[in-house]
Amino acid sequence: MAGSARQRSEAREKQTKAKDAVHPQLSQYRATGQQGPCVEGTAFPAHTSKEVVSPDHTTFDLLDIDSYTESIRKDLRTVFDHDRWVAHRSPSRYLRHTLGLFQSRMLLGMAPPLLYVLGVATFVCGYQNAFKISFGQLGQLLGLTAFALSLLLVFRTNASYERWDSARKMWGLVLNRSRDLVRQARARLLGLAWIPKERTKLRAMLCRWVPAFGKTMMCHLRRDEDLEKELKGILQPHEIAGVLNATHRPIYALQVLTEIVKAARLPTAVTTAMEGNLVTFEDSLGGCERILRTPIPLSYATHTSRFMIMWLTLLPFTLYSTLGWGTIPVCGIVAFLLLGIKEITVSIEEPFSILALETITNTIFTNVMELQSVHDTQLDSGNGNGNGNSNGNGKPAAVPASALVALAEDEGNGPLPLGLAAVMAN
Hints:
single chain, 18 helices, mainly alpha, 426 residues
């Protein structure tokens, strides 16, 4: 036992040192027991001395179940493909979901109030069994107030889902506008046939900073994200240093993109279209910040919690005369169903820690690299132009769109355009 406790203590000490290495400011606040300011969206409150080891061998405080429930939110970041949709629609889902009840993350999140209700039900059953006192008249009170509790839960569910859906739509806009911005730039700024050679660096810079904006926005909206690690392989070292030194990092990335468009000296119509995409970036950023900083009015959350706990506390008194000791499991089931709805609303109210933002930002990077590869491809009997011959997935680059257009205009007469002949030969 002593060895096990020592191992847990050493594991917690290593975690603390790792956090302090990333955010040195946290050590002084931990030493004084203060909450401290948010450092890149990160804040670590003072911990208790009691510990528990989770299934993944991570050490958490026994009285701070929040640490564990927050850590498993990462498991909710799901992205569906065709196979997952088939499983999702399968009639066997009812049995699968029921058998997985005790492995439910949601069950752990509502364990404290659920245990409280079961404890009250046990006490009421024992008390009434001993003293033969009936409280059946309380049933009318619960019947009169049940509809109000239902209305509160419906409002909370709708409001939380609207926040989740809005966040996902704004990130979808960031993805789509990233593609559009690079596509527009490649068509005007980076045309291979007539753009000056010196603009290739500006083109490469644009293709770096578009996915970099998505990464900075993701880290800005989450806690415990390593922005420097996310930007490695995307930006150059001096560019990463510039981002890390900025106070508001997504705005800094937007400013760099604005300067790139300005330096390109494009026609007014094209510049206006590209600026419109950057405005969409900024609007999406502001909308996400609004969701992150402004919860559903706290009066709704506090009153719903109080209402539900009072209602569930009185429930065993009304059921014992009818169910006897069966009141305990029935109260547990009712509490699980109602508390589960409340837990879902709280879980999705802040959507950025459960949305698969890594997948979205990686998709932006992959799409941008593919666009860059397609437009840079100048195959000549299988030889590249020094920029590589890949679309970011390790696959051969696609045929340039301009080559397909040239072939269509030629109506099949004359030689195949540059690059297309080599691809057709393969």
